[in-house]
Amino acid sequence: MTLYLGSCHCGAVRYEINAVINRVTECNCSICTKKGVLHHRVTAENFRLLSDESQLGTYQFGSKIAKHHFCKVCGIHTFSRPRAAPEQYTVNVRTLDNFDFQREQPEIESFDGQHWEEAFASLK
Q1: pLDDT digits (tens, 9 = 90+) for 31-84
Q2: For the chain, which terminus, N or C, has the lower number of CB atoms within 10 Å?
Q3: Is residue 56 classed as helix, strand or coil in its secondary structure?
Q4: What does residue 20 show for φ and ψ, rounded to 5 degrees?
C-alpha cells in the first residue's frame, strides 16, 4: 500500500489514505457527474482527516445515507461516506496530491448511479 495525501484546492481540507489504487469508479448519477468525481473506496482504518473537521461541509440528498463532504472555503468535493458502504470512505482521486492519474492509469469502472437500486443490487 502507498500513503497518498489529498486536499481541496485551497488546502483547508487535508487527508491521507493508505491504498493500492489500480481501479477507480466513475458514477453517472446526477451529483457525481456534476462534480466529475472518480471514486476510490477505502476502509475507515485507511483514512485519516488531517485538517480540522470544522472546515468540512456536508451535503446529503435522497435517502440521506451518503455524506458528500466538501471544503467550506473553496467548495471542492474531497471525499464521501457512500450510501453503499457508509462505514467506509470514497475519496475523489482527483484531489490526491501525489497520485498521477495519467502515469498510473487505473482501470475505470462504470457504475450506473442513474439507476442506483438496480446497479447496487447487481453488485451483490
Answers
A1: 999 999 999 999 999 999 999 999 999 999 989 999 999 999 999 999 999 988
A2: C
A3: strand
A4: -110, 115
